[in-house]
Amino acid sequence: MVHTPRPARRGALLVSTAAALGLLAGCGNGSGEDVHSGPPASSAGTAAPARETPSPSASAPAASSAPVSSAPARTASPAPPGTTAPSGGTTAAPATPAGGSRCHTSELRASLGRNDPGAGQENFPVVLTNTSGRTCTLRGYPGAAFVNASGGQLGADPRRTPGTPVTVTVRPGQSAWAGLTFSNPEVSGARSAAPAALLVTPPDERDPLRAAWPGGPVPVSGTASSVRLTVLSPGTGP
Fold first, then answer.
1. Angle at 114 between CA 169 and CA 224, to 5 degrees
2. What would the pLDDT profile of 146-183 be if each residue is shown by its tens digit?
3. What are the residues facing 234 on neighbouring strands?
4. 219 contacts 190 by C-beta, under 8 angstroms
5. Which residues face 229 on adjacent strands?
């Protein structure tokens, strides 16, 4: 029996081991690709953990929806009177009160109606006529004063006869009247004067109207010299 020296046996063992490893390395799938698809071994001889690729859906933040405004919904403003509403209809303007507003001096004309004497009394209707293009109202007592040609007042202001004021609606061309009454100075013996005009001030106005006076002498002082005036009523006289 031939004994191979120990160093020679070790060399033969290394050669055979290298040949076996070469044979294993040469084995494949015929396409040149490595059949083993797992991760390479780690330096410790165990398989290295697979590196996780983050999923796009997991890593990317979810798309946020458009911000929702917390402001309250805006309410459409109402259409002004007489204009077209958003729906296409027309908003009616507020109705004017049937009586209208009060009549102003510039919208009126003053005149004196026919005298209706009786029992020593002179009775003249003082007439206010609406000369404007609108309907207006008169209520209460007018003011009145006799004046001479120079505009100076004759006698005291007329006294008001007790009565219940009413609102008189006068359309264009219509009138309201108040009764002017006094005792005939020839009967009463009062001091008299002949006025040139009667100044008439509509209720709640400051500017007077001038009406020519057709009635002759009027009492201005002394006994029974008072002149009286009634509240306004519809029309031009009794």
1. 100
2. 999 999 999 999 999 999 999 999 999 999 999 999 99
3. 176
4. yes
5. 160, 180
Phi, psi dihedral angles at 57 (to 5 degrees):
-70, -25
Report the range of poorest mean pLDDT among 46-60, 121-135, 139-153: 46-60
| Phi and psi at residue 107, to the nearest 5° | -100, 5
Provide the β-strand partners of residue 129: 109, 175
Q: Tell me the HSE value of 147 on the side-chain side, using a 13 A CA sphere.
A: 15
pLDDT value of residue 31:
41
For 152-189, what is the HEC assignment?
CEECCCCEECCCCCCEEEECCCCEEEEEEEEECHHHHC
Q: 3-class secondary structure for the chain?
A: CCCCCHHHHHHHHHHHHHHHHHHHHHCCCCCCCCCCCCCCECCCCCECCCCCCCCHHHHCCCCCCCCCCCCCCCCCCCCCCCCECCCCCECCCCCCCCCCCECCHHHEEEEECCCCCECCEEEEEEEEEECCCCCEEEECCCEEEEECCCCCEECCCCEECCCCCCEEEECCCCEEEEEEEEECHHHHCCEEECCCEEEEECCCCCCCEEEECCCCCEEEECCCCCEEECCCEECCCC
Look at residues 132, 131, 134, 154 and name the one whose alpha carbon lies nearest to residue 144: 154
- Whole-number Å distance between alpha carbons of 85 and 228: 56
The count of C-alpha atoms lying within 13 angstroms of the C-alpha of 86, restricted to the half-sphere facing its C-beta, is 5
